[in-house]
Amino acid sequence: MVGSKPFNLTLYKLAIKHASVAEESINGMKISNERLEYLGDAVLGAVVAEFLFIKYPYRDEGFLTETRSRMVNREALNQIAIKIGLSKIISEEYKGKNLSAHKSLYGDALEAMVGAIYLDRDFHFCKKFILKRIIIHFDLDNIISTTTNFKSKIIEWGQRENAEIDFKTISVNGEQRFKEFIVELHVSGKLLAEGKGATKKKAEQEAAKNACEILKIAV
């Protein structure tokens, strides 16, 4: 799966250890893949960002950011983890354990795997793994042509969770032609995310997008 024999197999075993099946250490903390997931998320994001920057030299920052976020969201990574066989390893390792309740289990493990490869082999090897084993599975044309209505996603989530979703326009800066709207998104009265945009609608979409990322809502 990785493309070469691991040097430190312990890292890879840790990468597939979800917090729900992790044993507690002596000091009471669970030994799980969460730290590796954090590292892998950063490395994956950097490689995808560079890939898109080179592939689309004339597209703006908004396009690159949106495309990257859609490539590295949990649902997309879940599907790739299944395609490359990581899900089979996890299922075999924790046979008899109820892992079905954790929807992002495989995607989280894939990010942790990236972190493990980075520590085990170095950045250049890890970058090659991401390009050849992860990015190759993305249908970029479909990702680009399909727009996501983040506001609808967060409202649907609020309805499911019985949470009140409220968008508040905090300020409008600039002149008529170059306005910047700043919108806050509150969930049940508490500030969750903020968005900026040239229109109120765009600012709301940005706030909703940030909220989806915070709440790990699949888009």
Automatic annotation (TrEMBL):
> Is Translocase one of the keywords?
no
Query: What's its catalytic activity?
Result: Endonucleolytic cleavage to 5'-phosphomonoester
Quick one: which residues bind Mg(2+)?
E37, D108, E111
How does this chain assemble? Homodimer.
What function does the entry list? Digests double-stranded RNA. Involved in the processing of primary rRNA transcript to yield the immediate precursors to the large and small rRNAs (23S and 16S). Processes some mRNAs, and tRNAs when they are encoded in the rRNA operon. Processes pre-crRNA and tracrRNA of type II CRISPR loci if present in the organism.
Name a biological process GO annotation: rRNA processing
UniProt domain RNase III: residue ranges? 1-122
A Gene Ontology molecular function term of the record: metal ion binding
Task: Identify the gene encoding this protein.
Answer: rnc
Q: Which cofactor does it need?
A: Mg(2+)
A single cellular component GO annotation: cytoplasm
Residues of the active site are D41, E111
> Record's family?
Belongs to the ribonuclease III family.
In what residue span(s) does the DRBM domain sit?
A: 149-217
Keyword terms, alphabetized: Cytoplasm, Endonuclease, Hydrolase, Magnesium, Metal-binding, mRNA processing, Nuclease, RNA-binding, rRNA processing, rRNA-binding, tRNA processing
Which top-level group of life is the source organism from?
Answer: Bacteria
Q: Which compartment or compartments is the protein found in?
A: Cytoplasm
What InterPro entries does UniProt report for this protein, alphabetically? dsRBD_dom, RNase_III, RNase_III_dom, RNase_III_sf
Q: What is this protein called?
A: Ribonuclease 3
Q: Provide the E.C. number(s) assigned to this enzyme.
A: 3.1.26.3
